Amino acid sequence: MEKIRNVFVWVFSRYPEEREKTSQTEKLIDSMRITSKCRFNASNRLSLRSKTSFFITTILSLGLILIPLLQNSGVKLNFTASVLNMLQIFLAVSVLIYSVTIGTARYDLRSRELDECGQKIKRLIRDVRTLNEKNPEQTKIDLDKINTEYNQVLKESENHSRSDYKLSKLEMTGDYNITGLKRLFLLFTALVQCYFPYLLPAIFLGAEIIFITDMLSITEILSPFLNAEIK
Fold this sequence. Notes:
Elements: H1 2-11, H2 24-73, H3 81-105, H4 107-134, H5 136-141, H6 143-154, H7 162-171, H8 180-195, H9 199-215, H10 223-226
Helix pairs in contact: 2-3, 2-4, 2-7, 2-9, 4-6, 7-8
Protein name: SMODS and SLOG-associating 2TM effector domain-containing protein
Domain SMODS and SLOG-associating 2TM effector: 23-205
Transmembrane segments: 53-71, 83-102, 184-212
């Protein structure tokens, strides 16, 4: 019976979610630790967005260059000139809009700012721990000053997202006891929130690849709809 109860508790994560803190100093340190982890996760997320955006823009641009080259090469293509011209205009506008969006988003700069914020919080944590080990009573007195410095560091970068916080909770197993279905649901929602922005660029990239393979008669996915008269 006890085993069944333990399984039930694990599956539905009926444990206390957070580790109990014994002092205000420990609460502050734990708060800074989770925030630092969230900042690093946010930095990695934006860095990945930057690299992925550059890759997708490059591939879309290469596809835009490839189409007129194939038209002038004498290779038999499975689409009419009007369809190919339409696609070139569509790709050109898409690449332009996507490039402007990436430039406005400033993923690289934001990623660096978040990483620097995480590093500063880590240094602040080390300072608080060192001070607490030397003089715990003085640390309690200086909590307001430490909090002010902590808040000032937080203002130097944007806030992290909910997905960054969820992933941090899952990674910090020593601080958060999340198991079973609750852990699975938290992981699923965090990954959806993190990778959903890649959906539209992936659709554009996939559509371009399908169009080019259809154009070269490797596949026949779009050709029945875009160029039905060619048989």
